[in-house]
Design goal:
Layout: H1 16-29, H2 40-47, H3 51-63, E1 67-70, E2 74-77, H4 82-106, H5 109-125, H6 131-147, H7 152-169, H8 176-194, H9 198-228
Antiparallel strand pairs: 1-2
Length: about 230
């Protein structure tokens, strides 16, 4: 395992939550790759913490579907299968369409302002950003939709579901045509939220997630074909 990008953590980060945040970022960025071992001892040494917060952080990441813990083998970054992609995007379709519907009537002006900023960031990144930057900007937009519902439980569940998506999405960047399509879809969803049109927001989000699912599966199939050639 290569040295972690963040190095030794600050005193305020020497908790299981702080360690989990750093490891999650390493996975999202692609620096920790699927199937890569995550030895507790080595992680503790690199981060300058004891093994206890590292162990707790790994359990947290396991619950998010980012890490696999195996007896006598320890922790590894979870490998993603085509079935995983189908399942997670199906779940996203249900949860996020519901969230969009709820957000359309529950949102306040500050939610809309935050979504405008998130959308502007996505447009700025476009194809200039790398895969991780694109994925994290996309994550921010979708999490803001869930926050606009005012439902803390939904936000927690969505955070776990989207974390799994981002761990895969961080492996490939969108080309210009796909980035444009996604930004147009986000814009339409945001407009529906601004208009308080719950039915349209729900429908647009469902279509957006379905489109993202197809693209993710196409990418997965292409990668498998290359690896098996």
């Amino acid at each position: 395992m290569e040295p972690l990008g963040r190095g030794v953590v600050s005193m305020s980060q020497r908790t299981s939550e702080g360690v989990a945040r750093i490891l999650r970022t390493e996975i999202f960025s692609g620096r920790l790759k699927p199937g890569e071992p995550m030895p507790e001892r080595l992680l503790a040494e690199q981060l300058g913490v004891s093994r206890t917060p590292v162990r707790e952080a790994l359990f947290t990441l396991q619950s998010e579907g980012l890490v696999e813990l195996t007896p006598n083998r320890g922790a590894t970054v979870r490998m993603i299968t085509a079935q995983d992609i189908v399942r997670i995007y199906s779940l996203r379709g249900v949860l996020e369409s519901y969230a969009a519907r709820e957000a359309a009537t529950a949102r306040e002006q500050h939610h809309l302002d935050a979504l405008e900023d998130a959308h502007a960031r996505l447009e700025r990144i476009g194809t200039r950003g790398n895969a991780s930057e694109q994925a994290l900007a996309d994550l921010a937009f979708h999490m803001l939709v869930s926050e606009a519902t005012g439902n803390p439980l939904l936000q927690t569940i969505m955070g776990q579901v989207l974390a799994f998506t981002v761990s895969y999405r961080s492996n490939y960047a969108y080309p210009s045509d796909r980035a444009t399509t996604v930004n147009e879809q986000h814009r339409a969803i945001l407009d529906a939220l601004r208009d308080a049109d719950a039915g349209r927001a729900e429908e647009l989000m469902r279509e957006h997630v379905a489109s993202s699912s197809l693209y993710a599966l196409e990418h997965f199939t292409d990668v498998e074909r290359v690896e098996q050639a």
